[in-house]
Amino acid sequence: MNKRLTGILPVAPTPFLADGRVDEPGMRRVIDCMIDQGVDAICILANYSEQFVLTDAERALMTRVSLEHNAGRKPIIVTISHFSTDIAVQRAKEAEAMGASMLMMMPPYHGALLKATEEGIYQHFEAVSNAVNIPIMVQDAPLSGINLSVPLLVKMAKEIEHVSHFKLECPFAADKLETLIAAGGEHIVGPFDGEEAVTLLADLDAGAIGTMTSGTFPEQIRPIVTHYLAGEKDKALSQWTRCLPLINHENRQCGLRACKTVFMEGGVIKSDFVRHPQHPMSPRTKERLLQLARDLDILALRWGK
């Protein structure tokens, strides 16, 4: 990947058939739809891709299917998070060999209490970096239960060759982004936010250059970033305000189920199945989701029709 990424790098859902099997043709349609949404890159196998319910064989299959079908049209970011450093390294090598443009990984954790020390986190990322020749995005999310301090992130950015991108979706992300950028300088190549863009304006004010949302409606969120980076802050605020009801409903009420439900409604995929112990959203939540999506006339609702 030869150029700095900006804009929107959404997470692709992993489609399942109604009987719970992974849906390979559906995955290809997801990639096509997201490219048509005008995304700047696509992230696969992330938490919003339900990576935690996939077998190792399914992970490898969906990585290959996604990268082969994408065929270089957009940069693909492959999430390789795992508590085991050896497994993370193996996943990193496989993803790079298949054509990944970037890797994303969380710090090593398992459950609420099994976590690495700062030294262990540094060594974990260092081992992956030593095994590949593509950029690494650090995902700083509450799910890990780990506080990645700014000094640690800066040290990693300065000393670990391929650690250069950061997705911050922790509480008060804007303050942390601003501090990280100030402390890390040129070593913080790609500061991004997440959480479906619910704090995007504050994060852009703090220096973020893009966002990693779900794939629900990136064509509507991307202009917030492009307007802002072009100095058109009033236009960015106007578009963010327009999108905020759907952003908020997805973030606070639907979670990862939102994209799958919208994609099924629009004919992108056949089923919005989520694997147990997750469960489908309530009819009430689904009705409001689709109403808000229709009000914005989002592409995914008409893509497959």
Automatic annotation (TrEMBL):
Q: Does the keyword ATP-binding apply?
A: no
Q: Where does pyruvate bind?
A: 212
Alphabetized Pfam families for the sequence = DHDPS (PF00701)
Name the family: Belongs to the DapA family.
Keywords linked to the UniProt accession: Lyase
> What species is given as this protein's source?
Pseudomaricurvus hydrocarbonicus
GO cellular component terms given for this protein = cytosol
Is Cytoplasm among the key words of this record?
Answer: no
Q: Which GO terms describe its molecular function?
A: 4-hydroxy-tetrahydrodipicolinate synthase activity
Q: Could you tell me what this protein is called?
A: Dihydrodipicolinate synthase family protein
